[in-house]
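Troubleshooting: if your tokenizer reports a length mismatch, compare against these two reference records.
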Amino acid sequence: MAEAIADAGAVPRTGRYRWLIVAVLFAATTVNYIDRTMLGLLAPTLGDELGWSENDYGNIVTAFQAAYALGFLLMGWLIDRFGPKIGYGIAIAIWTIGHVAHGFASSVVSFMMARVILGVGEAGHFPAVVRASSEWFPQKERSYAIGWVNSATTIGVILTAPTIALFMRILGFDWRETFIVTGVFGVVLLLLWLWLYSNPRESGKVSTAELAWIEHDPPEKIERLGWGAVVTKREAWAYALGKFLTDPVWFLMLFWLPKYFSTTYDVDLKVVLLPMVVMYLLSDAGSILGGWVSSKLIQTGHSVNFARKATMLGAGCCVLPLLFVSGLDNMWLAVLLIGIALAGHQAFSSTILSIPPDMFPKRAVGSVVGLGGFAGGIGGMIMAKSTGLVLDATGGNYTIIFAACTVVYFLAVLAIHLLSPRLAPVAIESEAAAA
């Protein structure tokens, strides 16, 4: 490993076209999260107009989460089978259809169907991001690129309310027209993706020097690893278990923070946006910083194993301030502590997303990320149900929930270390012919 890093250091870092791919993926992440979040902000309006009960809305949310989890398995395989250009293009088309379908829905069942389509399509996003990053960035720079893309998740959440306000309050659309018209975001994204994306060697827009930088990692010994082989590898389950433990924290923050601030401080985050903006901008900084630290450690001669795990442990430490949030009278101190915790989560997320290409060949990365996304989705459903039960039992006290969130990152690093002590490439002779 040390020799490989030394040899790689002789290749000059040059050219910038690969960062255009990051910019497109950043825009795609933003659109993905706007489409995902819009229903949540419009839920009070839709509930009043359509007569939803709390259970009805819960069923609609559960339909999305279940489809999103299962969709990871399908989309991960699809992206490995057809490549990120075609595979992700299909995913964008599916989720855009699902998004627009909300504008034609009128019953709980039809909204559930729209959310299922949206969830299946959106599940293709992160497998495509990691697969594309593995094609366009060498190992020592990859987590930094993923950190930038991952930071757009919160940009999408922040921009959802202004987007709704633009179309409904300024342009005068109703909620149905807003869902339909904002589908143009997905159409433009799809055209942009198909126009700009290809692998570096076929793009025709990458200089010889930049291509040498992108491809300077040691060549892979195998071209492809079939799905059947992926699920038998403990390295795949190391990643999946890490996602199972930590992804639910992000789902918890997305779905429960507005309620927490409403009940604790009598503040509606959909109206008073500044606390949400501060917390999510801090999380963006964590996403980029976590990716940068992991990449920098590798560039300065540390092993990939040390760089990834040390960064994840540091990120986990940043989540510890959640222990002191419950019961705080000062809202802005709570905003700061939760923001630091969100930054820790996003730093962890950027780093763990970089692990599949460290261990698996490029044409298996989508399947591995899909397996992890499925595990994270299942964990998110368990977290949602557990959170409701704990809040009911404690009268709305979040102390136990926040404490549990601080532990899972260290358990995740331990699990990853036990299943993959060196983050070494998977040991297999050849599965190039696997289906």
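Reference record two:
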Amino acid sequence: MGFNWQGELDRERGYEAARVADEVGVDSMWVAEAWGRDAFSLLTLIADRTKRIKLGTSIVNIYSRTPAALAQHFATLDELSEGRVIIGLGTSGHRVIEHFHGVPYQPAYTRLKETVELLRLFFAHEPVHYDGKLFKLERGFTLRFEPVRKRVPIYLATLKPRSVRLTAEQADGWMPTMLPLRSVPEEAARVRAWCKDAGGDADSFTIRAPGGVTVANTTEDQQRARAGAAQNLAFYCARMGDYYYEQLCTHGFRTQADAVRAAWKEGGRAAGTGAIDDAMLAQMHFVGTTEQCAERLAQQQEAGVNLHGVTVMEPNPEKRGRILELLIG
């Protein structure tokens, strides 16, 4: 489940949602960052109000902080949460990195690879000596406190085949995006094969569902959820650079993606959102009743996904908890 990272923050309602998720057995709670609130502050507060739920970043980018700063953040959060952190990393996109953070975007693959390698070294808690293309650490610095765990799970959000293969070979999980459900079985099988070839445990490798599932048990909530999902999909297709657009084209939605881009260029957000094809949206994000969402989760599991993002549009905590219990099974 996610935690709000943008717009108006209702902290107490968010903490109550985290408490309910923790009590009923939800696997993990994730906080995005983008250009909203920072993920680490929110996760620290959630850690203080929960006992068992894992805490993930989805995602923090690898440009705005050095690998050492990321190690400090994650090691501190892992200590405060008593070993519940999942490191979620990605390259973001050049528009965010260059025009929000103001730093050069390339070479993304090299920076991602070296960041993962350095995080492993920092968590091993031995003097770090590293001779990379981007990072050269010669003085043997070590974190000035003992990490709770020597190996913290790292999940990568990657799109291109080379980066996805890096994910399979060096990470513990993959967070794909803009990937239709119909493409998941083939992609999941490929990633797990790469993991096995690299000597990893393909069975324990985590693949997070590329799209979310929203439980909405009223017609009004369903309409609102689909509108929000369509707006998000249109924004990524038209405004977040070419990677997401190309991903949609690669997986059979070129006509729809071109229509969304053209509509957005001509009429802005509303026009772009209105151009979203229902069939494409259904492949990317599912909205339905509790029973319908349970069926969708089963389809995703069968396709090769073993971590599912869920939103429940039910304000009453007790009712929301019962819905989550039904989905967990």
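Descriptive notes for reference record two:
- The longest strand covers residues 85-90.
- The chain has a mean pLDDT of 95.
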